[in-house]
Amino acid sequence: RAKGASDPDYAATVEATDFNVGRIIDALEEQGLSDNTIVIFHSDNGGNRRYIQPFNGGKGTVYEGGLRVPTAVWGPGVIQGSADEPMLSMDIYPTLLDLAGIEPPEGHHLDGESLAPLLTGKVSKLNRDKVFWHFPSYIGGGGPSSAMRAGDWKLIEQFETQTYEVYNLANDPGETRNLL
């Protein structure tokens, strides 16, 4: 409030989160644990609709505003930088196994894909052709729906209305023009 923020509660939350994540990393370094610790900061399904422009949707939707969430990874072997590559929370488990050099138990199916090659700079894109999201409930203003993304193309199914939407995210990242 003293700094004149337009949304002082949100600004305070962001500042407190940043400060406290920094405290965790500092503590790991002070205790000599930073050489064998991976820290992942990952938001859940979407942001506050006031702060997601140019994206459509928000928390609880399968539009980009509900799916594009901040994720930061810090630890040994992880290079500094950024990527605009779709990832899913189910990618975290195989990523941690891979970064730790641990094979999954035999016969254990991994739903996600390891992000380790991307995080360590071995590749600039993941080698998967589709990602899927399924929201069978009512949260954050969204209704039951699913989405599939293949490259720049995205298909959304709205269960209640039994309607479909198709977007080309390269040309329309805000999902304003349904191509059906």
Mean pLDDT: 91
Largest sheet: 4 strands, antiparallel
Q: What is the helix fraction of residues, given as a range?
A: 10-25%
Distance between the termini: 46 Å
Number of helices: 4
Shape: globular
Rounded to the nearest angstrom, the radius of gyration is 19 Å
Order of strands across the widest beta sheet? 3-4-5-6
List the uncertain runs: none
Structural class: alpha+beta
What percent strand?
15-25%
* Secondary-structure element pattern, one letter each: HEHEHHEEEE
Total number of β-strand segments? 6
Task: Looking at this protein, list some descriptive labels.
four-stranded antiparallel sheet, alpha+beta, 4 helices, two-stranded antiparallel ribbon, 180 residues
Question: SSE layout and pairings?
Answer:
Layout: H1 8-30, E1 39-42, H2 64-67, E2 71-74, H3 92-100, H4 116-119, E3 131-135, E4 145-150, E5 153-158, E6 163-168
Antiparallel strand pairs: 1-2, 3-4, 4-5, 5-6
Describe this structure in words.
- The chain is of the alpha+beta class and 180 residues long.
- It is 22% helix and 17% strand.
- The chain has helices at residues 8-30, 64-67, 92-100, 116-119, and strands at 39-42, 71-74, 131-135, 145-150, 153-158, 163-168.
- The strands form two sheets. A four-stranded antiparallel beta sheet has the order 3-4-5-6, with no helix packed on it. A two-stranded antiparallel sheet has the order 1-2.
- A hairpin with a 4-residue loop joins strand 5 and strand 6.
- The longest helix has 23 residues, at 8-30.
- The chain starts with 7 loop residues before the first helix and ends in a 12-residue tail after the last strand.
